[in-house]
Design goal:
single chain, mainly alpha, 2 domains, three-stranded mixed β-sheet, two-stranded antiparallel ribbon
Length: 173
């Protein structure tokens, strides 16, 4: 959302954007490589300050001890993410995968952002079952494929299987 604000401010003023209060700057890794956002502006560079940062969001009207009050008229505008060539290659290589990141910030009033871990496990189990049915691959094998891919230990797995086959043939046959 903040990058959409940056694009609007850049288009309106023709200057790179800094998120903050006019004195303190706020940065997020999602801003990396965005030519409209200045991480460290040049000393003589005139920038446009955009007041969208932690503790000061355009959609929040009140922060209470146990809740946020939000603007009902606020509509999210899609932002922009700029990737390096290396990030694009990585994304292209993994385009058929679903990335699940269940970690959330530990906030005293943000507990409702956290989806319980057991639900993530249930979601993954349901997805594995769906893919297993669609591709007619046993779930056991698909789960192993996912684990090996996640651990990036294919060669180790092949070696272990070869050792097992060799041992089995030696002992049983």
């Amino acid at each position: 959302m903040a990058t959409a604000d940056a694009a609007d401010a850049y288009e309106m003023h023709g200057k790179r954007v800094v998120f903050g209060d006019g004195n303190r700057k706020f940065w997020s890794p999602v801003f990396e490589h965005n030519p409209k956002i200045a991480k460290d502006p040049e000393p003589d560079e005139i920038v446009c300050w955009v007041p969208n940062y932690i503790g000061h969001r355009p959609y929040i009207t009140e922060i209470g001890e146990t809740h946020f009050k939000v603007r009902e008229d606020f509509r999210v505008k899609p932002g922009e993410i700029y990737l390096t060539d290396e990030e694009r290659r990585w994304a292209e290589k993994h385009k058929d995968f679903i990335l699940i990141e269940p970690n959330v910030k530990d906030w005293s009033i943000g507990f409702n952002k956290a989806w319980p871990y057991k639900y993530w496990k249930e979601l993954i189990k349901a997805e594995i079952a769906e893919i297993s049915d669609q591709l007619e691959i046993p779930k056991r094998l698909l789960n192993k494929l996912v684990r090996v891919y996640h651990k990036q230990n294919y060669d180790e797995e092949v070696t272990t299987n070869e050792q097992f086959v060799q041992l089995y043939e030696t002992v049983v046959k």
